[in-house]
Amino acid sequence: MADYSEHLEDFRAAGAELVAISVDDAARAEPVRDELGIKFPLLCDTGREVVKKYGLLNSGEKGGIAFPASFVIDRERIVRFRALEDVASRISVDQLLELVRELGRGVEPQTKPRKRGVFPGLMFLRATMNAMRHGVRSPIK
Amino acid sequence: MDERQIPPVGEKAPEFALADSTGVVRRLDDLVAGGMCVVVFYRGHW
Fold this sequence. Notes:
The complex is a heterodimer of chains A (about 140) and B (about 45). Chain A has helices spanning about 1-5, 10-15, 25-35, 50-55, 95-105, 120-135; strands at about 15-20, 40-45, 55-60, 65, 70-75, 80-85. Chain A has about 140 residues and is of the alpha+beta class. Chain A starts with a helix and ends in a 5-residue tail after the last helix. By secondary structure, chain B is mostly beta strands. Chain B contains one helix and three strands, in the order ββαβ. Chain B starts with 16 loop residues before the first strand and ends in a 5-residue tail after the last strand. Classes of the chains: A alpha+beta (about 140), B mainly beta (about 45). Strand 1 of chain A pairs parallel with strand 3 of chain B.
């Protein structure tokens, strides 16, 4: 997420806003935003309504959390790209930015998501979240 | 995860209005008005 934040102005220059959604409430999300210096909104879907609507509710974990996923949505609200972390279509922030630039220029994106294992953005995010989860909270969940 | 429920490329994304961590309500329709919006779902602290 810090990776996304670093590229926020690049995304905006390419015509895209950036938001992130989790089931965390403000009391949990705001310290993350502070700590990682995130300059885009962290949306709090505490009711899980949006996560459910997008088919991303992982109900097996702790009251229901979101499966990681990224979407590029255009001004008609049409999905132009999606990447789901649990299948081999994840995407790095750099690739996502390139894709948004291509969409912004009105060309069909040539950027294809790489296979599993080369996603520093999500890896960093997961590492950070794990560090915070295990660092801040009791290991007993 | 039931992938059939996840909006695919070429289809309309469900509208939403959610408060951000500072209390400001963000609507997808407003977020895309400038051209595009990248929406990232993340696991969070739970």
